[in-house]
Write a structure and sequence with these properties.
- By secondary structure, the chain is mainly beta.
- Helix content is about 5%, strand content about 60%.
- It contains 3 helices and 23 strands.
- It has helices at about 10-15, 55-60, 90-95, and strands at about 35-50, 75-85, 105, 110-115, 125, 125-130, 135, 140-155, 160-165, 170-190, 195-205, 210-225, 230-245, 285, 290-295, 300-310, 315-345, 350-370, 375-400, 405-415, 420, 425-430, 435-445.
- Strands 1-10-11-17-18-19-20-23 form an 8-stranded antiparallel beta barrel. Strands 2, 7, 8, 13, 15 and 16 form a 6-stranded antiparallel beta sheet that branches. It has a 3-stranded antiparallel beta sheet with strand order 3-4-6, with no helix packed on it.
- The radius of gyration is 31 Å and the shape is flat.
- About 30% of the residues are buried.
Length: about 450
């Protein structure tokens, strides 16, 4: 993370003697004129999207097959295709919301049963998850694994054939993350009366790294076959479907975590509800707008077997290129503005906040390319930029003593900035937060 030396400029200006003004400001003698504050700031709604250029990925990995230069005309006959196991589409039908459904079953014996004897629509106490760690980020998360194999047999005659498949749908459709970090501010009172006042303030905020995007999958697959060959292509796809059900009502783990580390009631008899000893029986809200599903796909495994057909000898060359790309976003902020305030009571003040905002963003991307399953190339790039705008917000100050002040507030940022990035294989954009909130403690002197 790069430092922000610009912070020294507004601080130096604040420390300097006030310039002559046409309006004489009332001296600040009765109250402390300086205040230093430290606290927490959160900026939600950071949206990142990314997509892979499959052709660029295959070229960077040196994985594109070329035709032999002879006759490329070939007659391909599909001999048959068969499938075994389950696919992501199969699991998504059962793992998500469907009208009228009353029972869901997931991996590890986790389940949700709307029949709990209470007959409350959209609510149940008859549910159980083996681990309370499955409650994260305000949602209960269940996992359902899948694994399926598809085998296709083809016969080629009459020449050389090159078959190519491009992964043109490799993208991260968009994440929505919250940046959290620490902030330090320095304020100087310029004018003050019994009820009103005006401060000049500067601040610097540093946020922890934000997971921007993650894209994984096959960018390129090809097979080059000569005449008179039969090819059997087997592709195995596997992964996990994650079902998330928002439960903002769950706040205190003591209300939903069981003594054995699981969560949920698991009623023994819905007609005469009895909760096992050491178990909690929290109400789980199960409604359509709380459901969401996501698919975590493992890299597909493809094998190709060839044999000589009726036309004689055969030769087949196969090639695959896989991509794994991740992005991490780092943010810093520098602000300078005025803060008019109204003393509602001796211990409570309403404070406005408007001024100039400079945001330094740095997106680090790492793209790994694999040719036929072996590492072929790694591309790392940092895209950093400054964006400039303004902010406007409100805050409440609670004076515990004449020196100690607690503050909470929020602000809107404008204009709404959108950044673009790319490393030659993966490209996308980042939308910065439209607003932020903070809580701090300050010392006046």
């Amino acid at each position: 993370m790069k430092a922000i030396p610009l912070l020294l400029l507004p601080l130096a200006a604040m420390a300097a003697e006030p310039a002559a003004s046409a309006v004489e400001l009332e001296p600040v003698d009765s109250e402390p004129a300086w205040r230093v504050s430290v606290g927490f700031r959160a900026a939600p709604g950071i949206k990142t999207s990314a997509a892979v250029d499959a052709r660029a990925a295959a070229a960077a990995a040196g994985g594109i097959l070329r035709s032999s230069g002879g006759s490329s005309s070939a007659k391909t006959e599909i001999l048959g295709s068969s499938s075994e196991g389950t696919t992501a589409s199969d699991v998504l039908k059962d793992a998500g919301w469907s009208e009228g459904r009353t029972y869901w079953e997931f991996d590890n014996g986790d389940y949700i049963n709307l029949d709990d004897g209470a007959n409350q629509p959209g609510e149940t106490q008859n549910w159980h998850f083996q681990s309370a760690d499955d409650f994260a980020d305000g949602a209960v998360r269940a996992r359902t694994s899948y694994s399926g194999t598809t085998t296709t047999r083809t016969r080629e005659t009459g020449g050389t054939s090159l078959r190519e498949t491009w992964g043109d749908a490799l993208r991260d459709g968009g994440s929505d993350e919250t940046a959290c970090g620490a902030e330090i501010r320095l304020d100087r009172t310029l004018w003050e009366t019994e009820d009103f006042g005006l401060d000049l303030g500067a601040g610097w905020a540093w946020y922890g790294d934000v997971d921007g995007f993650s894209v994984r999958g096959r960018a390129y697959a090809a097979a080059k076959s000569v005449a008179g060959t039969e090819t059997e292509t087997t592709t195995k796809e596997s992964g996990t479907v994650v079902t998330s059900i928002k439960q903002p009502e769950f706040q205190d783990p003591a209300d939903y975590v069981n003594r054995d580390g699981s969560m949920g009631g698991a009623l023994e008899d819905v007609n005469a509800p009895v909760v096992a000893a050491g178990y909690q029986a929290p109400v789980l809200t199960v409604e359509k707008d709380r459901f969401s599903t996501a698919v975590e796909r493992n890299p597909p495994q493809t094998t190709v077997k060839t044999s000589g057909g009726a036309s004689g000898a055969s030769k087949t060359t196969s090639r695959t290129v896989d991509v794994q790309s991740d992005g991490t976003l780092s943010l810093q902020e520098l602000r300078l503005g005025v803060r008019p305030f109204w003393k509602v009571t001796r211990w409570l003040s309403l404070r406005g906040d408007v001024g100039f905002l400079a945001v330094y963003s740095e997106l680090e991307t790492e793209t790994r390319l694999f040719r036929d399953g072996a590492p072929a190339a790694t591309i790392r790039k940092d895209d950093d930029d400054w964006t400039f705008g303004g902010y406007a917000g409100l805050a409440l100050d609670f004076a515990a003593t004449d020196e100690l002040v607690f503050s909470v507030g929020a602000e809107a940022r404008f204009p709404h900035e959108k950044l673009h990035f790319g490393d030659g294989v993966v490209s996308g954009s980042v939308e910065l937060a439209e607003w932020s909130a903070f809580a701090s403690v300050g010392w006046r002197f």
